[in-house]
């Protein structure tokens, strides 16, 4: 084992980004553009800045578009490969399946932090309830701006 090397394992679980897939049906959620850059590139940049020499993307759903976009990583100067996992794979099983990749040295695991699930409808309902609750205690008073 080469203990000086670092690699990154990115775990993508469909259930964690399904809400985003509903909004952008024509592309994989990792290819959604933020500030003129697909989200996956931010993760690749983070891996590189953290000293990773290799990166593996493990997913429980098809990632053909992502594979086509990222390729083997040569444009970033990092090796990228891909693996399939099952939705029910826990972290122990995930690491077991990727044992050979992880045995190269230190492994940074990026999992469950890819997107914050945002339910706009629920948020608006919560805000509306809060506003309606405040208006019940509101008392209108007339203010006279002219003295005397």
Report what the structure shows:
The chain has a single domain, classed as Spore Coat Polysaccharide Biosynthesis Protein SpsA, Chain A. The radius of gyration is 23 Å and the shape is globular. It is built from six helices and six strands. Strand 4 (54-59), helix 3 and strand 5 form a beta-alpha-beta unit. Helices cover 37% and strands 20% of the residues. Mean pLDDT is 81; it is low at 135-141. The relative contact order is 0.21. With 148 residues, the chain is α/β, with parallel strands linked by helices. The strands form two sheets. The protein has a four-stranded parallel β-sheet. Strands 2-3 form a two-stranded antiparallel sheet. The N and C termini lie far apart (89 Å).
What's the gist of this structure?
The protein has 6 helices and 6 strands; from the N terminus they run E-H-E-E-H-E-H-E-H-H-E-H. It has helices at 14-23, 39-49, 64-70, 91-97, 99-102, 120-135, and strands at 6-12, 33-34, 37-38, 54-59, 79-84, 106-111.
Q: Which short descriptors sum up this protein?
A:
single chain; about 150 residues; alpha/beta; Spore Coat Polysaccharide Biosynthesis Protein SpsA, Chain A; 4-stranded parallel beta sheet; two-stranded antiparallel sheet; 6 helices; 6 strands; about 35% helix; globular
């Amino acid at each position: 084992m080469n203990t000086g090397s670092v690699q990154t394992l990115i775990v993508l679980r469909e259930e964690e980004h399904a809400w985003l897939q509903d909004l952008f049906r024509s592309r994989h959620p990792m290819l959604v553009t933020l500030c003129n850059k697909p989200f996956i590139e931010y993760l690749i940049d983070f891996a590189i800045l953290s000293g990773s020499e290799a990166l593996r993307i493990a997913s429980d759903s098809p990632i053909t578009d992502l594979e086509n976009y990222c390729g083997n990583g040569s444009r970033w100067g990092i090796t990228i490969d891909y693996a399939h996992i099952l939705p029910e794979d826990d972290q122990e099983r995930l690491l077991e399946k990727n044992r050979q990749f992880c045995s190269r040295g230190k492994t940074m695991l990026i999992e469950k932090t890819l997107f914050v699930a945002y339910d706009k409808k629920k948020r608006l309902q919560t805000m509306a309830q809060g506003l309606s609750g405040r208006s019940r205690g509101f008392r209108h008073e007339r203010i006279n701006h002219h003295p005397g």
